[in-house]
Specification:
- This protein has 383 residues and is of the alpha/beta class.
- It has 14 helices and 13 strands.
- It has helices at 17-23, 33-50, 63-72, 88-99, 117-126, 150-160, 180-183, 209-215, 227-234, 245-261, 263-284, 309-320, 346-362, 372-381, and strands at residues 6-8, 55-60, 80-85, 103-108, 132-138, 140-141, 146-147, 164-168, 187-191, 202-207, 299-302, 322-326, 336-339.
- The longest helix is centred in the last third of the chain and has 22 residues, at 263-284.
Length: 383
């Protein structure tokens, strides 16, 4: 059916009608008093979402722009950094750090496994010379559906005393608890097309006072992504360059929706959807890819044994107009991923589980009791 496609991927995510309507407003001048009011309001809303009194800066760009900005603004060429790598996006941060001439020590875990906080603790405690300037990691590893223990790792970084915690929270911000101040995070990057319930186009970087001290001495090249420019403009409720004005309209609308729901309710909803997706897949007989107990509340990765995951995704889309995400790199054809972050409700998750189960039945690949997946998901949603 035309225009019926449902996004159940980890980004872009579905967008509420209120937010879509806000996008359709006529643009206003980005140096006008009206726009300054929107910047002031959204800055306050972003601080609420990040649970911080620190600067939260808005860039026109993707989540990768946020993370690159988070690296180049606070480090210098040759600085030693620890970089966690347990998936596609952990790999990306290693590549970005290396591209800027940083001395990268990789702390690795197998795809599907969480990063080991003890490995970070050991490396940081061994650094008696305080040569490590930053620990860079992904909180919710989108490629594998694994949530890393950012809170514990950040605690070890604080004990080190010198290093910064630079966290990719692109698929965790707005889906699970990321209390920046309480955890002592220094740089938090995220993007609009995930838990923010918006189209792609805005990137967000939250910065601690400790990181701003490091900024004074950082020498990596930057211009458009120079966060000092954004900080200066933000103090005047403005932006150093021409911003995506209509996306600011959408940002204000989406954050108002989130504030009405409340942080605890948002986090509870995402945890419930994770539980339902996981229960549904297990009941159908499809193994989860992420290690038990380490699944992200934003996305569930499934590794169907003896089934071409790409063929299954195509069949679900063709039959039910539901788009699931595929596996990346060596996981292509081996894994499919169910996105359940942002503007997703119980009905969406239950429908996705039912569609997967019905598709398997249609292909003659259903191994369990008919309806078991839907029943398990429904039971999880009712708890």
């Amino acid at each position: 059916m035309q225009d019926k496609l449902t996004l159940m991927i980890p980004g872009p995510t579905p967008v509420p009608e209120t937010v879509l309507l806000a996008l359709g407003r006529h643009p206003i001048g980005h140096r006008s008093a009206d726009f300054q009011k929107i910047v002031k309001r959204t800055t306050e809303q972003l601080q609420w979402l990040h649970q911080t009194s620190n600067d939260v800066l808005v860039l026109t760009g993707s989540g990768t722009a946020a993370m690159e900005a988070g690296i180049i603004n606070f480090l210098s060429k040759g600085d030693k950094v620890l970089c966690g790598d347990n998936g596609k996006f952990g790999e990306r941060w290693v590549k970005v750090a290396q591209a800027y001439g940083l001395d990268v020590q990789v702390i690795k875990a197998e795809w599907g496994q969480p990063l080991d906080p003890e490995a970070f603790r050991a490396a940081l405690e061994a650094d008696t010379a305080k040569a490590i300037k930053a620990v860079i990691l992904t909180h919710s590893e989108t490629s594998t559906g694994v949530i890393n223990d950012l809170e514990t790792i950040a605690r070890h970084v604080r004990a080190h005393g010198t290093a910064l915690t630079i966290a990719d929270c692109v698929t965790s911000l707005g889906a699970t608890n990321v209390p920046m101040d309480a955890w002592g995070l220094d740089v938090v990057g995220s993007g609009s097309q995930k838990g923010y319930m918006m189209p792609p186009g805005l990137a967000f970087v939250a910065v601690s006072d400790k990181a701003w001290e490091a900024y004074k001495h950082a020498d990596l090249p930057k211009f458009y992504l120079d966060l000092g420019k954004y900080r200066k403009s933000a103090k005047a409720d403005s932006n150093p360059f021409t911003p995506a004005i209509n996306l600011y309209f959408a940002l204000e609308a989406s954050l108002e929706i989130m504030q009405k729901e409340g942080l605890e309710a948002i986090f509870s909803r995402h945890a419930r959807h994770r539980a339902a997706a996981q229960a549904g897949m297990k009941a159908i007989g499809l193994p989860l890819y992420a290690a038990e107990g380490h699944g992200s509340p934003a996305i569930t990765a499934v590794a169907p044994e003896g089934i071409d995951a790409e063929a299954l995704r195509k069949a679900v889309k063709d039959r039910f107009d539901i788009l699931l995400a595929g596996g990346q790199d060596h996981l292509k054809g081996k894994v499919f991923r169910i996105g359940h972050l942002g503007f997703v409700c119980d009905r969406d998750v239950l429908t996705a589980v039912a569609a997967i189960e019905a598709t398997l039945q249609g292909l003659g690949l259903h191994k369990g009791t008919t309806g078991a997946g839907v029943a398990a998901a429904a039971a999880a949603l009712s708890q």
